[in-house]
Amino acid sequence: MNTFSTTSKTTATKPLVIKIGGAILEKESALQALLAVIAKLRNKQVVLVHGGGCVVDEMLAQAGFTTEKKHGLRVTPSEQMSIISGALAGTVNKSIVATANSMGLMAVGLSLNDGDMVSCELSLLELGFVGVPKTNNSKLLDSLLKTEFLPVISSIGALPSGELVNVNADDAAVAICQLLNAELLLLTDVNGVKGSDGEYLSSLDHEQAHSLINEGVIAGGMTAKVNAALHAAKQLRRSIAVASWQSPEQIMQLLDGQGVGTQIQPH
Ligand SMILES: Nc1ncnc2c1ncn2[C@@H]1O[C@H](COP(=O)(O)OP(=O)(O)O)[C@@H](O)[C@H]1O
Ligand SMILES: CC(=O)N[C@@H](CCC(=O)OP(=O)(O)O)C(=O)O
């Protein structure tokens, strides 16, 4: 089934949420190429959600902290939160916005809790200040999209108590997608999800994904991404694409209904 087409009546008016991983920031030309494709998407409302794990790694190391990940998620002690939020909601968010604006895209930098879009609960996985996002209010995004701004959202969130939390950017993108009932594209530094034979899979269902995670074939940041995509696919009852930001022209192919990367299935 083509769930990613501008020609389908049900999806024609849906906004498109594109998540970009941090590694794109180390390749300015790739970010510019992606933004150039976004600029060409006439009549399509686009929201960018970004990570920046590699920038967080660098800034924590510069401050003399060590860092560890569990299930692909960063353990976040309270004393590291100001560096992490400074890296993601500050440095990374502002530089993406500035690059987009230099290309005439009218970008606006936001974080998850702005306009009460999304609030967070603490993760039950005992990871410190790691948040699980819950959708709240789409008013801010609705009005920005209506007035043709490009929202650029970092994965820094907040608890109802007002404390900041670190949210995996794939989970953040899923929450924004749910908030807008949007289409979702998870762009990363590889062409999709690889199976046991090392080849990219064109499609991945729930059962296959869990065995590949248990076997360690899907590991690190890809675990968090596949889990986030499975959750979104199930909730939205449509497949979610994991593809590469290295070939942004693939976005056009996806919008034309051609399968690229790995399609994560709803069951
Ligand atoms: N089965 C797999 N298929 C593809 N990539 C995988 C797989 N298992 C682990 N990875 C790793 O996951 C990385 C992507 O996750 P991550 O670095 O968190 O990306 P992003 O920053 O885009 O969210 C890939 O660069 C790759 O090294
Ligand atoms: C809880 C958690 O893991 N947060 C992530 C947020 C950034 C992120 O997800 O960046 P990428 O998309 O580049 O991996 C982190 O601290 O690295």
UniProtKB/TrEMBL annotation:
| Matching InterPro entries | AceGlu_kinase-like_sf (IPR036393), AcgluKinase_fam (IPR004662), ArgB (IPR037528), Asp/Glu/Uridylate_kinase (IPR001048), Glu/AcGlu_kinase (IPR001057)
**Key words of the record:** Amino-acid biosynthesis, Arginine biosynthesis, ATP-binding, Cytoplasm, Kinase, Nucleotide-binding, Transferase
- EC number(s)? 2.7.2.8
Note the Pfam families from the entry.
AA_kinase
> Example GO molecular function term?
kinase activity
Please tell me where substrate binds in this chain. Answer: G52, G53, R74, N166
Q: Where is the Aspartate/glutamate/uridylate kinase domain?
A: 15-243
Annotated site, Transition state stabilizer, chain positions: K19, K225
Q: What is its main location?
A: cytoplasm
Protein's pathway: Amino-acid biosynthesis; L-arginine biosynthesis; N(2)-acetyl-L-ornithine from L-glutamate: step 2/4
SUPFAM superfamilies linked to this entry: Carbamate kinase-like
Q: Which reaction does it catalyse?
A: N-acetyl-L-glutamate + ATP = N-acetyl-L-glutamyl 5-phosphate + ADP
Q: Where does the source fall among the domains of life?
A: Bacteria
Compartments, record wording: Cytoplasm
What family does the entry list? Belongs to the acetylglutamate kinase family. ArgB subfamily.
PANTHER family reported for this sequence? N-ACETYLGLUTAMATE SYNTHASE, N-ACETYLGLUTAMATE SYNTHASE, MITOCHONDRIAL
What is this protein for, i.e. what is its function? Catalyzes the ATP-dependent phosphorylation of N-acetyl-L-glutamate.
Q: What is this protein called?
A: Acetylglutamate kinase
Q: Which gene encodes it?
A: argB
